[in-house]
Design a protein that fits this description.
Chain A is an alpha/beta fold. Chain A contains 13 helices and nine strands. In chain B, 52% of the residues lie in helices and 6% in strands. The longest helix of chain B has 30 residues. The chains are: A alpha/beta, B mainly alpha.
């Protein structure tokens, strides 16, 4: 930063200023080793081929890329990058990979969402890539197999699998029998009642209502929800869910957005005011829509 | 379900000497109350998930021979859309200091068709684990690096 020929005194004074953070906003240029990330691409029809492809990317990177790149940034930003670079030199890559493999095999958790969508449905018509094969592919993985990776083989015996699905059209029994057997713990989640909706609106750490309050606070508008206002929102959400389509807690998003539409739009002009959302306000903005099923199919 | 005071349940200090991470110092009950902060109700699912998490920790403490025999009890969550299945998993991934991947089963195709094959899940998991270990190691050596640069 001070150049190679600087005297000890200059270096000292600069070090002091650096430690104090005086120089944090100054801009400097440093050479950064770009972590060359070559996109890994898959060869269709050759599963596992991308294992090798990544290696090729790395080899090319070593011979061609990976030149230090000059970058402009503030001292503060550069500090972090330099520390990371220095740390990387101290870390033994082999040790990391060994630890990572160990933690993958013993602590890894895989969450398989929408598992019901790959079950074979008897009533399906039309062409579709068979999903039943995916189930068969999943079997060994869940049962325990060895997968080859570019860092070496990984045993999947002790990886925890959590599968989830709505099973509205398909039933758990539509899955391959072996797959059912490998998911021994079944838990059913209950459909939400309007009581649940109330709690969802109020209780979680970053609940919807807290989010909207915080958002409008940035415009200097205080948003208040009365209890009966929240009750009304929850009841309307249940009503729409039962009459139109049950989309669960997501319904609250659409409803609240609709209720607060006006407030959000005019918030900038209402700086400094307090706006209270009570039952009447909710009904005024929504009441008609909820009653008209045809209309709410499109809007809510 | 009664409301619990969560903040009191989270241990304030963790033992630095033992290698176990924050999550492994949580009992199933604490994991549930930690999830309660973000997901309302669905206690059965939370319990199952908490037990599964804790069981990993229990297995780690076993002797070698037994350790190999104990297999994880995989979970199947069933419930209509929008009741919190995915939300539980999202929160769990933040809570569990373990390699965690969430995949949509619909993204995969049978071997031979264009699309991802299921073994990619394990590779992704390993990549995540490596990234996690890197962050951990970086923290360890940061002090040494500070002196050098």
């Amino acid at each position: 930063m001070v150049g190679n020929k600087a005297s000890i005194a200059t270096r000292e004074s600069f070090r002091k200023r650096l430690r104090n953070g005086d120089l944090d906003d100054n801009e400097i240029e440093i050479a950064v080793n770009e972590s060359n990330s070559m996109p890994s691409f898959e060869i269709p029809g050759m599963p596992g081929a991308n294992v090798g492809m990544i290696n090729i990317g790395e080899m090319l990177g070593k011979s061609m890329g990976n030149k230090p790149k000059k970058k402009k940034m503030t001292v503060k930003e550069s500090h972090e990058i330099l520390i990371n670079e220095e740390s990387d030199k101290l870390i033994e890559q082999d040790k990391i990979i060994k630890a990572a493999k160990n933690s993958t095999e013993n602590n890894g958790i895989v969450f398989l969402d929408e598992i019901d969508k790959i079950s074979a449905r008897t009533d399906r018509v039309g062409g579709d890539v068979s999903r039943e094969g995916v189930q068969r592919d999943l079997l060994p993985l869940i049962e325990g197999t060895t997968v080859s990776t570019k860092y070496g083989p990984i045993k999947t015996d002790h990886i925890l699998f959590i599968a989830s699905g709505a099973f509205q059209l398909a039933k758990p029994s539509d899955l391959l029998p072996e797959l059912q057997g490998r998911l021994p713990i079944r838990v059913e989640l209950d459909a939400l009642t309007s009581e649940d909706f109330k709690r969802i609106l109020k209780e979680p750490d970053n609940s919807l209502i807290k989010q909207y309050k915080a958002l409008l606070k940035t415009e200097n508008v205080d948003l208040e929800f009365t209890d009966d206002g929240i009750d009304t929102i929850a009841n309307l959400a249940t009503e729409v869910n039962s009459t139109v389509e049950n989309i669960g807690a997501r319904r609250l998003h659409t409803i609240i957005e609709r209720v607060l539409d006006d407030i959000s739009f005019t918030a900038t002009d209402n700086s400094g005011k307090t706006i209270t959302v009570n039952s009447e306000y909710v009904k005024k903005n929504l009441g008609e829509l909820v009653k008209d099923t045809d209309l709410s199919k499109f809007i809510l | 379900m009664q409301k619990s005071n969560i903040t009191n349940l989270v241990p304030k200090e963790k033992n630095i000497n033992d290698n176990s991470s924050y999550i492994s110092s949580l009992s199933p009950r604490e994991i549930v109350s930690e999830l309660d902060r973000f997901v309302v109700g669905q206690n059965k699912a939370k319990r199952a998930v908490a037990i599964a998490l804790r069981n990993r920790w229990r297995r780690q403490a076993l002797q070698d021979e037994m350790k190999d025999e104990v297999l994880p009890k995989n979970i199947l969550m069933i419930g209509p859309t929008g009741v919190g299945k995915t939300e539980i998993s999202r929160r769990l991934s933040k809570l569990a200091e373990a390699p965690f991947v969430k995949v949509e089963a619909t993204r995969f195709t049978e071997v031979g068709y264009v699309g991802r094959d299921v073994e990619q899940i394990v590779r992704d998991l390993l990549e995540i684990a490596i990234a996690m270990e890197k962050v951990k190691k970086r923290k360890e050596v940061a002090a040494v690096a500070q002196k050098k640069c």
